[in-house]
Amino acid sequence: MKKAIILVSGGMDSCVTAACAVKQGYEPAFFHVNYGQLTQNRELKAFCDIADYYGVKDRLIVDIEYLKKIGGSSLTDRSIKVEEGTEPKKSGALPSTYVPFRNGNLISIAASWAEVINAGRIFVGAVDEDSSGYPDCTAEFFKKFNELFGAAFSSGFELKIETPIINLSKAEIVRLGTELNAPLHLTWSCYQSEDKACGVCESCFLRLRGFKNAGIKDPIEYK
Amino acid sequence: MKKAIILVSGGMDSCVTAACAVKQGYEPAFFHVNYGQLTQNRELKAFCDIADYYGVKDRLIVDIEYLKKIGGSSLTDRSIKVEEGTEPKKSGALPSTYVPFRNGNLISIAASWAEVINAGRIFVGAVDEDSSGYPDCTAEFFKKFNELFGAAFSSGFELKIETPIINLSKAEIVRLGTELNAPLHLTWSCYQSEDKACGVCESCFLRLRGFKNAGIKDPIEYK
After folding, report:
1. pLDDT value, residue A88
2. How many CB atoms lie within 10 A of CB A90?
3. Are B153 and A72 in contact (CB < 8 Å)?
4. Does A219 touch chain B (CB under 8 A)?
5. What is the pLDDT of residues A90-148, one digit of tens each?
6. Confidence of residue B7 (pLDDT cuts 50, 70, 90)
7. Residues of B in contact with A113 (CB under 8 A)
8. What is the Cα–Cα distance from B206 to B6, expressed in whole angstroms?
9. Which residue among B109, B138, B151 sits closest to A151, beta carbon to beta carbon?
10. A105/B contact by beta carbon, under 8 A
11. Cα–Cα distance measured from residue B23 to residue B202, given in angstroms and rounded to the nearest whole number
12. Are the CB atoms for A124 and A162 separated by under 8 Å?
């Protein structure tokens, strides 16, 4: 069985992405980072629960506290407020939750691991259109990363990023996850609460709207 | 003054690269990683000494122990032997010191920092031809990374990697460093010793050959 590394934050998108990789016949290797974000402990629990659900053997959990040291985001800097989700998005304006080049960091770590465990794919649950507008979540970003991979490894090793849900809406992701029996009840999306989801941050806002538009009840608890 | 981040391992190549950035009029911001490599403490001392020499204010030192956790290299796994340097290189064979996608990881961290401190350049002291043959040290690799950067940041921020010594031989690097008054006496290149350089590992081998071919005496001590 061919191995695929899946970036699993513990949220809904990465959970459905893992379900896609499993559906495609890959043996999943799960990768997670703690980077000093507000809901670090809750996200790690969601990661472990989803990994257990899929019986994942290869797991890599790393601490990259340096993103907190570098700062510049409300997810890693307690002095910057996490704003509430709004509709429609202000064009061009990035939310304070943006962590510069975060996906570049995560994919780079996964790439180092991929060559060591001989995994030819990295699955990333990025969503382009129906999202917060982060520049490191676009199809163009991942295309360029794949081109970089073509020049980055020792001969004989090939690596490619797959982004199966990048063009889906949140409602379509909810429907796909339900269809694939992805354990959405084990996921965590909220940016700022760890007991019950706040229901108002941008991540909760997008998730709730997705479930509502899909006509499916969100199985997690809200305040 | 425009800021440039310089990846400073503490070795000769990154020291001369820092000298190039200073010569070009950039305000240098120094970046260093500890990744569980054998000579971690000695390299960190060299980094600090070189930063002091240039009066550098912006310094970022991060621990990325995950590269050790991931393994696959004699620099991070004590059970794999660091081989001696040889001439000529075996074509196609990578030395055991290869750390998969290491430069991808370092550049990604630097890129996150760059957007936060508004530095438009990252200087990397990679050497292509006269080196160990690591795939993440080629001109093509950095070209692809620059193309990725074009699709990676919020609007208005532009970032570019500079590799001023990539096509130089080790002897030319020694001569250039000497000409620019780079503090070569403060640098550390040895892969396996922390008191006096071993003189036989691949890194010492390339360095010593460079000084010899340049007709200049290496100012550091060897066993």
Report:
1. 53
2. 9
3. no
4. no
5. 556 677 778 889 999 999 999 999 999 999 999 999 998 766 778 899 999 999 999 99
6. very high
7. 70
8. 22
9. B138
10. yes
11. 29
12. yes
Place of tokens 């000494």: B49
Evaluate whether B67 touches B40 at the Cβ level (below 8 Å).
no
Cβ-count burial of A222 within 10 angstroms (0-12 exposed, 13-18 middle, 19+ buried)?
middle
What is the full DSSP assignment across A171-201? Answer: HHHHHHHHHTT--GGG----SS-SSSB-S-B
* pLDDT tens-digit map of B10-28: 999 999 999 999 999 999 9
ipTM of predicted assembly, 2 dp: 0.88
Residue A57, chain B, CB below 8 Å: the answer is no
Query: Is the CB of residue B139 less than 8 Å away from at least one CB of chain A?
Result: no
pTM: 0.90
- Interface-testing mutation among B90, B154, B161, with chain A (most A C-beta atoms within 10 A): B154
Mean pLDDT, rounded, of chain B: 91
DSSP string computed for chain B: --EEEEE--SSHHHHHHHHHHHHTTPEEEEEEEE-S-TTHHHHHHHHHHHHHHTT---EEEEE-THHHHH--STTT-TTSPPPBP-SSPPTTPPPTT--TTHHHHHHHHHHHHHHHHT--EEE----SSSS---GGGSHHHHHHHHHHHTTTS-TT---EEE-TTTT--HHHHHHHHHHTT--GGG----SS-SSSB-S-BHHHHHHHHHHHHHT----S-B-
The answer, for A135 touching chain B at a CB cutoff of 8 Å, is yes
Name which residue leads in pLDDT, A20 or B135. Answer: A20
Which pair of tokens denotes residue B33? 């990683």
Q: What is the pLDDT of residue A92?
A: 61
CB A141 within 8 A of CB A128: no
Q: Which of B160, B126, B135 is nearest to B145 (CA)?
A: B160
